[in-house]
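Methods — Computational structure assignment.
A single polypeptide chain was analysed. Its primary sequence is given first, followed by the predicted tertiary structure written as structure tokens.
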Amino acid sequence: MRLKKQTTSLVALLMAAVFVLACFAGCKKQPSSPAGQDTTAATNGNGSSIPSGDTNLDNADKGEQGNTNCNLNNGGIMVQKGDWIYYQNTADGQKLYKIKTDGSGKTKLNDDKSAYINVVDDWIYYTGPFGGYIYKMKTDGTEQSKIKSGGVSVSCSHLMVIGDWIYYRSDAMSDNYYGIYKIKTDGTMKTLLNDKRSENINVVGDWVYFYEYYSDSEAKAIYKVKTDGSGKTKISDDKCKFMIVAGDWIFYHNSSDDGKLYAVNTSGGGKVKLSDDDGSYYNLAGNRVYYSNRSDGHKVYSVQTDGSGRTKLNDEYSSNLNIAGDWIYYLVGDMEAAQAKMKMDGSGRTVVD
């Protein structure tokens, strides 16, 4: 069902004021909706629009951010820094390559299956598509090494680098399995932040956002915890299977309502349903949420952050949506055997190799 958009001129002016730059450019925090507001309408019911974009600028005071929350929660298969795209080349066994934005300078950087790609200063950080050790190397492919803590290689299945800190979900049995940790990029100061099984880590400002599991098969509630491990707070009791955080808002797959797309303020207020589609692999750019629509064969759709303007963008099975500049990068087919990119309106589809 296509949800109705607020049409008053006041709302239009407010929305124009808060919609921001595309996902990788990041967004500044926008005004929150009033606490306690709860509705399933297309907007949050009070004339306040939901901000969009990603969160790089929220972490600017903590150092350079290696990739966007949105991309990393889609496997981090690519990232753009300056004139270079660093990407997982599915045509060559998921090894790490770089190429200039004009298509020149294509260079193979390693022989590892690579994902969760972060670039900070002149260092690349990554792990495997299904977890593994954390590696770093120079952006020219030299000086590759493992991140170690006390002489032991650090193993993870999600990572995000901000300045000289790595935030990650551990997959080491010797740790709190699938708990959230942080560690310095030199391997020192390893710190446990959450000791329960956690998914979809998003770091925004002084907070880490995630959801927990009741069991291997059943998702739990949405939480946040301070980046020093204190102040753990439940945000929503909704069961969640996929989530991304942008500014003061969490966009998530609400398993408590058949996987429909919802948004909720990071304080827990202002809950709003944006789409009746069963979606996943959410990403954001400008005033739109992009997603793989499981209700229509995992084809890519987008919808405005007020729930209006639902648009179909392609006709192929698509997953792991990553965004850089004006392009959506994604894996093709249920076997994820190829990578493609297309413009934000669905045009210009090109195979990435």
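Note: Residues 9-352 form a domain with the Neuraminidase fold (CATH 2.120.10.30).
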